[in-house]
């Protein structure tokens, strides 16, 4: 038998997605320079177990490349 109502988890997911999109809209966009300043000033932390220097370097490169 097919149900016409979405499951509670689907409703919850849709509500969370809508809430997240509303939050993003309210925050607006930061300039590339603002983003770079923010990232440069952030506090560094010890990486979680399993996150290697190689993974960090690849992620940093990916972030840098996305701003080009």
The count of helical stretches stands at: 3
Radius of gyration: 19 Å
User: How many β-strand stretches?
Assistant: 0
Structural class, from secondary structure content?
A: mainly alpha
Helicity range of the residues?
A: 55-70%
Please explain how this structure is put together.
The protein is mainly α and 68 residues long. The chain has a domain at 30-68. It contains three helices and no strands. It has helices spanning 8-27, 32-41, 53-66. The radius of gyration is 19 Å and the shape is extended.
Which keywords apply here?
single chain; 68 residues; mainly alpha; 3 helices
List the helices and strands and how they pair.
Blueprint: H1 8-27, H2 32-41, H3 53-66
Brief sketch in words of this structure:
With 68 residues, the protein is mostly helical. It has a domain of 39 residues.
């Amino acid at each position: 038998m097919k149900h016409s109502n979405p499951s509670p988890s689907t409703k919850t997911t849709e509500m969370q997605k809508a809430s997240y999109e509303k939050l993003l809209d309210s925050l607006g966009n930061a300039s590339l320079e603002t983003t770079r300043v923010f990232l440069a000033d952030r506090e560094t932390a010890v990486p979680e177990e399993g996150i290697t220097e190689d993974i960090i370097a690849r992620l940093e490169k990916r972030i840098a490349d996305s701003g080009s």
